Amino acid sequence: MLFLNPYIKDEDLDFYNTVKEFAKEKILPSVEQRDEDCTWDNELWKEMGSIGLLGIPIPEEYGGQGGNCFQCCLAQEAFNAGSLDSGFGLSWGAHMIIGSLPILFQGTEIQKNKYLPKLVNGEWIAGLGLTEPDSGSDAAGMRTYAEKTKDGFVLNGSKTFITNGPIGQVFIIMARTTKSRGPMGISAFIVESKNKGFSVSKVLKKLGHNTSTTAELTFEDMYVPDENLLGPLHSGFLRIGKATLEWERTVLLAALMGGMENILENCIRYSWQRQQFGKSILNFLQLRKRLREFGFIYVQQEG
Questions:
Q1: Which fold has domain 2-124?
Q2: Is 248 a catalytic residue?
Q3: Taking the model in full, what pTM does it have?
Q4: 298: number of Cβ within 10 Å
Q5: Acyl-CoA dehydrogenase/oxidase C-terminal domain location, by residue (predicted)?
Q6: Topology, domain 126-242
């Protein structure tokens, strides 16, 4: 239904249709069972990496596609429109946007070359550790603290509701590096799940998005070397968190539009096929009115 948008170029529509067909062919057949079982499919993940979907905004020099935020939105919308697998799409978005982009935006060349290629091809999965049991985007309530040592930092604290928590290898962790409160005292660190002191303390059950994994993470005297500080000291939240969260909010909305497209298409298809009193129920004016209203809402939001 993206063709209804007059601002979409032909090449954008081709990209959209390619992702949508991939989602229909590869993701859709197993989504119901995976959602029921609350399982993660790493083979599907690696297949997405092999065709370039995990690195859309990452420059080609690091193995990515060199795309922009709009192309990330197109991909997420097409994925949900084709598969209605919002959970897997959520894990993908968390990995690509709030897990990988901070390294691209603020990382050193050493950090970019070490992490981005493996995040792009699906070998590693990334996530962002911002939310805590007592705080979320309210930076003033953050308790996780990184104490400076001679050649690094020692982190103590916990994060919760972390998408990709049970399966990720690389996390961008926000931690306070000064005793003062507020966003100016927060730094960002690239943390690997293999680090001593890193643990998945609890895998969280959810009411939906069951094909995505979510967890609480705990750090107990976890050493992080100086070279894993991401961006300037004390500026992690302001320079990284806010910038990537703006991308995240935009891409999440596009994913929801994809789900809306899927539902609308299925409603129209079913209404056309369903026969009552010798004719398609799509001929009944009240039903047609409801579908038209739904369609208007979709077109307005798509614009």
A1: Butyryl-Coa Dehydrogenase, subunit A; domain 1 (1.10.540)
A2: yes
A3: 0.89
A4: 17
A5: 236-293
A6: Butyryl-CoA Dehydrogenase, subunit A; domain 2 (2.40.110)
